[in-house]
Amino acid sequence: MTAARRGAPLVILGLSVLVVSTAAVMIRYAQLAGVPSLAIAFWRLGFATVVLSMVVLAKPRSRQELSKLPSSTWMALIFSGFFLALHFASWISSLAYTSVASSAALVTTNPIWIALISWLIFKERISGWLALGIATAMLGSLMIFLSDAANTGLSGSNPLLGNMLALVGSITVCGYLLIGQRIADKISLWLYVTLVYAIGAGFLGIFTIVSNVFIIRFHEPWLAMFGWFGFRPSTHWSHRYQLCS
């Protein structure tokens, strides 16, 4: 393996950490400037879809794979895209009501829910150490709720609502992750992510129409910022890339 090939996962990891660590703060800044939460969610997935489509669909092998996807896989993709849309809609909305720290802490509790869902639905075993970790994380989440309830003025306009939305975002992203795990042998990672993002953006577009939210009625410079936002969801696949490298 060449030095460049060995260094690729580290470069991707660095970019992923940079984008992930700045996303919540930048989203909150956009909300303070008057950009609707659903508009932010739509453009994030929308830009990510455009970027990934240009890369993935340019490959003949990906286009051939796309043409041969069975209906069962398409159904799984639709459900996965729906869960991903709910994740972004709820989590981004949470930042308008609670603190960035609380929202970020709660939305990243998805390993807890994945473990519980896998145990309840797929009958996967939970080890003693994992159970201890789940209990500790849930205790920490409870402490965040109680702390925000006691400091309403410091944590946001409605911290309890914001924290609940962040938890919803954490739980719904599990659907995206678990479905991806279950159909990993039926579709390539790049194509899976591209199609799910496109479907998720479609659902978010429907959400904005139903909620009467305008997705372009704000200052134009924010569209450039959404390009960065859109790069953020594109980094989701990088975590699996690093594990496989």
Give an overview of the whole structure.
The chain is mainly alpha-helical. It has one domain. It is 80% helix and 0% strand. Helix 1 packs across helix 11 and helix 4 packs across helix 10. The protein is globular.
Summarize the structure.
It is built from twelve helices and no strands.
Fold blueprint:
Blueprint: H1 3-32, H2 37-56, H3 60-67, H4 71-94, H5 100-107, H6 110-120, H7 128-150, H8 152-155, H9 159-182, H10 189-210, H11 221-234, H12 236-244
The percent of residues in helical segments reads over 70%
Low-confidence runs of at least 5 consecutive residues: 239-245
Query: Radius of gyration, rounded?
Result: 19 Å
How many strands appear in the DSSP assignment?
0
Number of helices: 12
Which range does the strand content fall in?
Answer: under 5%
Described by strand count, sense and barrel closure, the largest sheet is: none
* Shape estimate: globular
What is the terminal separation in angstroms? 11 Å
Query: How many structural domains?
Result: 1
Structural class: mainly alpha
Q: What do the pLDDT scores average to? A: 79
SSE ordering = HHHHHHHHHHHH
